[in-house]
Design goal:
The chain is an alpha+beta fold and 76 residues long. It contains three helices and two strands. Strands 1-2 form a two-stranded antiparallel ribbon. The longest helix is centred in the middle third of the chain and has 14 residues. It has one domain.
Length: 76
């Protein structure tokens, strides 16, 4: 599975609020950060996926692949 397919599958799982499926895409080396969560490692990031999907009953996710080249995929 290439980078574009992985990113699409990850966000499709997010749209479906499937936290365990999202978490399954994280590699051992993953580092995640955003405006709320600062520098999470793999297990912490996996927990956030599961928590967001399980606890956010009104969660609505939309995404768009903006660009992709090789292993780089930009999503908004």
């Amino acid at each position: 599975m290439g980078a574009l397919e992985v990113v699409s599958a990850f966000y499709d799982a997010f749209v479906q609020r499937n936290g365990p499926q999202m978490a399954a895409f994280y590699s051992e080396e993953v580092e995640f950060s955003d405006l709320v969560f600062r520098l999470l490692r793999r297990e912490e990031a996996k927990c956030i996926c599961r928590m967001l999907c399980a606890k956010s009953l009104d969660l609505r996710v939309e995404y768009e692949i903006v660009s992709h080249a090789g292993n780089k995929v930009q999503v908004k």
